[in-house]
Each structure stands twice: as structure tokens, then as C-alpha cells.
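Quick check before the chapter quiz. The format below is the same one you will see on the exam, so make sure you can read both the input and the output lines.
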Amino acid sequence: MLGTIDAIQADLGHDGLLYRYDTRETEDGLPSGEGAFLACSFWLVEALAMAGRVDDARKLFDDVVRRGNDVGLFSEEIDVRSGELLGNFPQALTHIALLTAALCLAEVSATGKVEPRASA
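Here is the expected output.
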């Protein structure tokens, strides 16, 4: 799992933010300029925490949370260079990912581990 996390960060990461896929290698029919997908960055927080890299997870969580707008809302994507929030706004999926990442970090802090969750 650690190798997969590291590979994803190396291939799709930029300053702690993750793209959904490599837009340079995938013809998706959309205009260029897709931003990093914020939900992926929060999912990375969970993966790091569950893999025992809790300090990395907390640091990333704090960094991504600081990228919200003036009232703490998030869009679907973010421009990694300018910080501009892009795409659908506000984006429910991003906020759900934020909440589950926060809950995961809280659980790791309280118990030292994360119990598997039931699938929906």
C-alpha cells in the first residue's frame, strides 16, 4: 500500500494536491486546464493515516483545508499554481471527503488505528 501511495503522489501529485488522472496522457475530450481534484487530496489524507503515516496525513490535511475560500467552502478542483477554486462550487463530494478525512484523523488520534468501515 505504501508503494501505491508513493506512486500516486509521484505521478499525480503537485504540492500535496492530486489530479484525478494524467491529463497529458488521457484524451478526455475536455478543454485543457483541469485543476487538481480536491476530493482526491482528502482521500490521500485517509490513505496516509490508515498506512500509519499520520504526521504526513495531518500536514497534508492542514495544507488542503487552508485552500478553502474565505468561509471554508471548496470547489471540485483547484488550480495548483494560483490556488483558484475551479469547477462546480460548492462541491458536495469535496466536503464529504473533507469530513471523512477529518474523522479518520480523529480516530487515529484517539485509538492509534482506523477500523475498516462498512461499504455503503
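If your answer matched, good. Residues 44 and 57 are 8 Å apart (CA to CA).
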